[in-house]
Design a protein that fits this description.
425 residues, alpha+beta, BirA Bifunctional Protein, domain 2, Rossmann fold, eight-stranded mixed sheet, five-stranded mixed sheet, 15 helices, 21% strand
């Protein structure tokens, strides 16, 4: 082949579209139930937006962003994550004047130059929800609850919720001193990336996935032991709220997420036994992000989930789509007069909301039925000389090969009454 999709990208073929429409539909329903309104931001933003918000020493900024100069010489970046753009829109459009918190959700492509892996590509689709303008820990509970209920509404099970607090600018500096004291004797055994993180971004040490660094990270002192008198009660309210809602969780002192803007609550949802590389959804609180972007101090909390990884888990768990797209009905014909009348029958079906397709050209009836079988249709309507004379249509059930004659004027009502799975979406 002379051309292929770029590495780390995939074509979403028609056979896969049912999963995408299902996930998007459930997402829209759940977001509406929780009061989250849709927002769409540009695919690219000023590069400095992500450098300031995500953190210049993060892997995303240092290694994974698709950045370029436009014709005017400005630096632009394809968005590597969704929250920074939402916060930029919140500031730009004066959304602080709206009732707080402002609840927003988005769905769109995310771009990161990273090693492609199962369910995660260099271009992938991300659903995110953000609640901006309220510091009450109950909003954290709402966000976690929304993510948890959304995944379960899709039909996913065997999920594990991991929870942690990464503190705030008051208590984190003291913790980082303790963390570095723990790591310093082990620097020689750490991977090259962690030796750099030790000096530039020590909290990221806990997030390393390299085998050589796991024992040191597992033995690190937990941040929960060093939370200040603001972060500790906040985290307690989050835990109590989740318990009240019946959402099980596990504390994970190594959970810090990969973005510098997180404060206080962070969480991830993973399939049981899947490990961090299979995380389905994750997020947390980012109380300093709006201020970092030039706004007044404004709290926020949110989560994001990759649609590709959700679909991968739907398939691996054998979740059947409850409302798959109905296969179209196939219209076959025998003879020139019937071929002309088939065009009218096709249009009548489509105008009645029934998906319908037909063969073209001078194919034999046998060839048309082979095509119908190849398309996987459940029923075929056949028109011939006899049907034109009697004002009927021959209805063929493809799986059984059975045929019955149906009055032409009854075809739509038969479909609408549910006798045939013909209704299109």
């Amino acid at each position: 082949m002379p051309f292929k999709a770029p590495r780390g990208t995939v074509d979403i073929m028609p056979v896969e579209q049912g999963y995408w429409r299902y996930v998007e539909g459930v997402a829209a329903q759940v977001c509406r139930l929780y009061g989250y309104q849709r927002i769409d931001t540009p695919i690219f933003e000023e590069t400095s937006l992500f450098a300031r918000s995500v953190g210049e020493s993060t892997d995303i900024v240092e290694k994974e962003m698709y950045s370029f100069q436009d014709r005017g010489g400005g630096g632009l970046t394809l968005r590597p994550e969704g929250t920074a753009a939402i916060c930029r829109a919140y500031l730009e459009h004066g959304m602080h004047n709206l009732p707080q918190p402002v609840r927003l959700h988005y769905l769109g492509p995310i771009f990161r130059y990273e090693r492609p892996q199962a369910g995660r590509y260099r271009q992938h689709q991300q659903l995110g929800c953000e609640a901006i303008g309220e510091q009450d820990a109950a909003v954290d509970v709402e966000i976690v609850n929304l993510a948890w209920r959304f995944l379960h509404r899709l039909g996913l099970g065997n999920l594990v919720l991991y929870l942690n607090s990464v503190g705030c600018p008051r208590c984190r500096p003291g913790y980082l001193v303790v963390l570095k004291d723990h790591y310093e004797p082990h620097l020689a055994s750490l991977c090259p990336e962690c030796r750099t993180r030790f000096h530039r971004n020590p909290l990221r040490l806990l997030d390393c996935k390299k085998d050589s660094c796991q024992p040191v990270a597992d033995g690190a002192p937990p941040m929960l032991d060093y939370l200040c008198d603001s972060c500790a009660p906040h985290f307690q309210v989050v835990r109590e709220g989740l318990e009240m809602l019946g959402i099980p969780f596990q504390s994970n002192h190594r959970l810090v997420r990969g973005l510098d803007y997180y404060t206080k609550t962070v969480f991830e949802i993973q399939p049981g036994g899947g490990g961090a590389q299979s995380t389905i959804a994750g997020g947390g609180r980012y109380d300093g992000l709006i201020e970092e972007l030039g706004g007044r101090p404004t709290p926020g909390v949110g989560f994001a989930t990759g649609i590709e990884r959700i679909i991968l888990n739907l398939k691996s768990q054998g979740v059947a789509l409850p409302n798959p797209h109905a296969s179209p009905i196939f219209v076959a014909y025998l003879g020139e007069a019937a071929r002309r009348d088939a065009l009218k029958l096709l249009e009548d079906l489509r105008q009645g909301g029934i998906a319908a397709v037909s063969a073209f050209g001078d194919r034999s009836l046998k060839a048309q039925l082979r095509q119908a079988n190849a398309l996987g249709v459940s029923h075929t309507l056949i028109l011939g000389e006899e049907e034109l004379k009697t004002g009927t249509v021959l209805l063929r059930t493809m799986a059984q090969g059975k045929q019955e004659r149906v009055p032409r004027e009854a075809v739509l009502s038969v479909a609408r009454e549910g006798s045939l799975p013909l209704r299109g979406d």
